[in-house]
Amino acid sequence: MDVRIDSFGALLDSLPSITKEGLLIHAQRLPASARTLLLPRQLAYYYDHPARDGEIPQPTGFVCGVSGRNLLPAVNFCQDIRAWRARLERHGIKVVSAASFSGRSQRDHLRYAKKLGYPVVLKPVIRNTLYEEFITDIKSEDELEFLFRKSRELKKNKASDLAASPYAMTRLSEDHVDEHGRHYLPLSVRYMLEKQLEGRQLRLMMAEGQVVAAFHKHPQDELWQIVETLHESYRVLGEKVAGVMQGMAYLRIDLIVDDPSIEAQEGNHAVIALSEHLKCYKLYYDHPALTQQLLERVAGGSPGRSLDAPMRFAAVLAGISHGQRLESELMRTGRAMGLDLTLEELDEVTGRVRFQAVGPAWAGCALTWVYANGLGIEEVPTSVDIQMDG
After folding, report:
1. Residue 258: how many CB atoms within 10 A of its CB?
2. Average pLDDT value over all residues in the chain
3. Given this model, what pLDDT does residue 1 score?
4. Nearest alpha-carbon partner for 353 in 388, 390, 328
5. Confidence band (pLDDT; 50, 70, 90) for 176?
6. What are the boundaries of each domain within the chain?
7. The pTM is what?
8. For 266, left (φ over 0), alpha (ψ -120 to 50), or beta?
9. Which residue among 3, 28, 143, 218 is least crowded, i.e. fewest CB within 10 A of its CB?
């Protein structure tokens, strides 16, 4: 990294969107933790300072910015669109009209789209942990047929790159190879076809079963606005969904509504998505105060810490394959972020590198995060172990 980065915002903007939520949580939690252990695929454990009796507390875990207070079985359930749709429907909650189709579908998906009426939305039944891979505004049969086939094309290294879900479904069947030798996902992998509804998008942020924030926007807009007047019926609806999705301490509910200030009734709203990912990075610049409150609630730790405050820490990088390259790269990256970095140990036999650094808190958070996740650097350690000094 040779380009000077002088602010957390500049660093955040330079990263892929799939890593931003994790970095926001990391920047919130690292300065308040005694020790932090980062592992690849955005897995992080934060250890608080020991209690007075000397007992070491259990770490708080996050995966891709998702709190460990979201129970893993519930998260996996939430990622299966068919599963949560069926559960919500059984409890009388209105969801968007949709059906799923596997790669074996000949024309069933086309007939269903005609029945729904275009435009339609196409998305995988098993949602990715980090982002939603969906295609909206499909307006014709020819377009749907092309995209249905295109979506199933096997992406190179998809299962091993950073975008792959850390706890995604296991593919137990063979890849499908067509008559031209092109590789596709197994024929059993299903895609959801749903009606694209007209109306306003309403996003409810749930924490411990309660609506803690609500945003809305028109589908064509980029900017989410804070809902000034949310009808009580939508708060009740959010609480009901959270109750159905047991084990989700934090949950994002997306709906299409006519007007969030008018009572939710049959025909004027429908749930279109549920996710364990709050997507705070989408709100970071436009609603900084509310976003900070959400991050503090999800991340825990001490509130009110400035990312520009000085931070001193020691870090150990394990599993480095090329120590000399790492030394040059580490010093260069540290300088680019305004860190005063001192290398203490470089053992090429064990692949262990130890260094100390002092500088703005955001820079220390950024350096450790990018190294743990191989973001634009050549070395990807098997772990980054961070000890705070003072």
Report:
1. 15
2. 87
3. 46
4. 328
5. low
6. 8-65+302-388, 97-195
7. 0.88
8. beta
9. 3
**Residue 13 three-state SS:** helix
pLDDT digits (tens, 9 = 90+) for 103-151: 888 899 999 999 999 999 999 998 765 556 789 999 999 999 999 988 8
Sign of CA dihedral 204, 211, 242, 301: positive
Report the alpha-carbon distance of residue 133 to residue 370 in Å, rounded: 24
Q: What is the pLDDT of residues 67-83, one digit of tens each?
A: 999 998 899 889 899 99
Quickly list DSSP for 50-114: P-TT-PPPPPEEEETTEETTS-HHHHHHHHBHHHHHHHHHHTT--B--EEEEETT-SSHHHHHHH
Q: Which residue has the tokens 């599963």?
A: 83
Whether the pLDDT of residue 301 is over 60: the answer is yes
How does 99-108 read in b/e, with b if 16+ C-beta sit within 10 Å?
Answer: ebbbbebeee
CATH 3.40.50.300 fits 8-65+302-388, yes or no: no
**What CA–CA distance (Å, rounded) separates 183 from 190?**
16
Judged against a pLDDT cut of 70, whether residue 154 lies above it is answered with: no
Rounded Cα gap, residues 251 and 205, in angstroms: 6
Buried b (16+ CB within 10 A) or exposed e, 200-233: bbbbbbbbebebbbbbbeeeeeeebeebeebbee
41: nearest Cα among 166, 170, 128: 166
Res 383: pLDDT: 94
| pLDDT of the residue at 52 | 67
Closest C-alpha to 333, from 376, 304, 381: 376
Residue pair 96/195 in contact by the 8 Å Cβ criterion: yes
Q: Are 201 and 254 within 8 A, CB to CB? A: yes
Give φ, ψ of 313 to 5 degrees.
Answer: -150, 160
Q: Which two tokens stand for residue 326?
A: 């790492």
363 contacts 341 by C-beta, under 8 angstroms: no
- How many angstroms separate the CA atoms of 240 and 246, rounded? 10
Q: Contact at 8 Å (CB) between 119 and 196? A: yes
Query: Could you tell me how far CA 165 lies from the centroid of its own chain?
Result: 10
